[in-house]
Fold:
Amino acid sequence: MSTATSGVEIVAVGLAAHGPDGTIFSGVDLTAPAAGLTVVAGPGGAGRTSLLLALGGRFRTSAGSVTVDGSGRPAIARQRTAVARARPGLDLEEHLTVAETVAERRAIGAGRPTAFALERMYDLVRIEPPAHLLVEHLSAVEHLLFSIALAAATHPGAILVDDVDTAIAGADLSRAWRALRDIADYGITVVATATAPPPRGAERVVDLPGHHLHARPHLYPRGGIA
Structure:
């Protein structure tokens, strides 16, 4: 498939972060290929969300390095990436309607996403959220896909997506992973977190150990989606 945007490569080397309670994550070596789908998998408390934000220049690390699009500057990482969601801090406001959510994003995003770009992403991830519907009334998978569409419609080099498989299972989970694969095929780099990776479709999977464990995560390739 020809791509319509230019995804960025994200590379972490020896990345670690520590907090008041100890190690959040450590020894992370990761290469998220441009226009690929990379999944960070691990149990709750393994540091998935913090690592996701660190890859986008939004979380302070204590060791190692991150480069986004060849730059090690956090400001460039923030500029070239968009957070679809990172729970609990960065998520959709439940008591706004879909239309109000879009208007809010445009107000803080200098007019982005445009109506045309958003409709293109709606088509790509296969959702049609009614403008008048409250976000809290979207199903779990529609909530996720709406978040993804909003982020991808701003034309970033990469989107960061947290908790893909939280409260989503079966056909809905397959639908979510398919949407992320389609976003990557469109040309946007995708880095997503989940308790377990998809059975297929990801170029890279990083397995994070449990909280306070120091074993290095395992990085390995995955095949294409059927």
Summary: The chain has one domain: 10-212. The domain at 10-212 is CATH 3.40.50.300 (Rossmann fold). Residues 82 and 159 are 5 Å apart (CA to CA).
